[in-house]
Amino acid sequence: MKLWGGRFEEGPSEVFERFSGSLDFDKRLIDVDIRGSIAYASALERVGILTAAEHDELAAAFKAIQKDSQDAAFWQGADEEDVHTLVIRKLKERAGTLADKIHTGRSRNDQVSLDIRLWLREEIDASVKEMLALMAALLDMAKRDATAIVPGYTHTRRAQPVLWPHYLLAYFEMFARDLERFKETRKRVDVMPLGSGAMAGSGFPFDREAIARDLGFASITKNSMDVSGDRDFALDFLHAANLTMLHLSRLAEDWILYSGEEYGWLELGDGVTSGSSIMPQKKNPDSLELIRGKCGGVFGDYSALFLTMKGLPMTYNRDMQEDKPRIFDAADQLRGSLEMARVVVETTRLKPAPPAAAVEESWAVATDLADALARSGVPFHQAHQIVGRLVLESVRDSKRPADWTAEKLAAFDPAFTADMARYVKPAEGIETRELPGGTGPKAVAKALADAGTRLSEMGK
């Protein structure tokens, strides 16, 4: 059956039917489509299109269809162009000609907008829940090795010593921003479009605020033409998903490296790794590689919908049907990646000795020495030059920072005082960085406590 066709002498070609059909992917919307239609039936009753008995009959039929849709047999032989048409056919099978009233004053344009918003609202809530769990796992890991020291990197080169929790809190902050983006996106999704019709508004005096209340929306849309052509809310979701996937990919890249033999910092759990079909010794970080790999697909989903929308005239165009594969794919990959990342974090263990040794054998403490000189009154540019020469000589003579005693430092340059020798130890320099946001032990302990409090608030 079609929801249109009166002005056509012939039906669509078989090729067009196959090319334009969307049931294979938009069937995921059946639950929200039915919920929206039940609310719409109530609106039709309020304006006198349906009697109370007719409303009850349609609502009961919709609920029966919703229950039946959980069975695979429901979908067998379904060849409608989309899920909305399928639901109407099933409704007619149960309610007869009464089903023809349900579309009064409603277009598939505002119906589809409603369905996507209802679906996205729930998907955002589920993704936020997964993100909160991942952030909690990062905090638990940070507390487990609260005093471990690792090299911080710039340009993939050892830069300065930092506490391991400080490193993990950096990712916590990334995901905290992601969480804010999703909550802002949800606000823009949480706007009720029914009553907009195809593009000019409905010809029936619906109480749109009442429909919004029935469906739990915070507000109603302001312009019917905008509703018909709008997918900004979907792009907002994809943008938020993209940044989250970007952050997950960066974490995955770090841990792929840090768990390899060349670094040896992390031991990934057996449950998130795999072996080789030919090399018995391998323990491959496949879970992290898949997170990193799936990131590209989600980036592509955003680009695809963005480019689809960028040249469309007002208002609805059939191109917009292609929004759903992009939204569904991104949502699936995002939620799966967040869940996988949480399991990785929960089952990974830091091996503190290798990163501590990496700090001690490198010149990551160079800035601490330069800062000590600057605090004593040496202009920082000169302090930088002095320590730079110290590093150069050390590299030439294969000296580590620990090889420099107070006497040797003073002999190298009289600007070094005896108390500055302690900064060849990474822990000493770290203790000078106690300003908020720094890697000092007290600052990090406070940041960890604050992060826990914030996480609790985020979850409310």
Please tell me about this protein's structure:
This protein has 18 helices and 6 strands. It has helices spanning 14-20, 23-26, 30-46, 52-68, 83-95, 108-144, 164-189, 208-215, 224-229, 232-258, 286-309, 323-347, 353-361, 366-375, 380-397, 406-412, 426-430, 441-458, and strands at 149-154, 157-163, 191-192, 219-220, 266-267, 349-350. Helix 8 (208-215) links the parallel strand 3 (191-192) and strand 4 (219-220). The model has no long low-confidence stretch (mean pLDDT 96).
Name the descriptors:
6 strands, two-stranded parallel ribbon, single chain, elongated, two-stranded antiparallel sheet, 460 residues, mainly alpha
* N- to C-terminal distance: 46 Å
Level of helix content?
A: 55-70%
Structural class from helices and strands?
mainly alpha
How many DSSP H or I helices?
A: 18
Shape: elongated
The average pLDDT is: 96
Indicate the proportion of strand residues.
under 5%
Largest sheet features: 2 strands, antiparallel
Which radius of gyration do the C-alpha atoms yield?
A: 30 Å
Uncertain runs:
none
Q: What's the total count of β strands?
A: 6
In the sheet with the most strands, the strands line up as 1-2
Question: What is the N-to-C succession of helices and strands?
Answer: HHHHHHEEHEHEHHEHHEHHHHHH
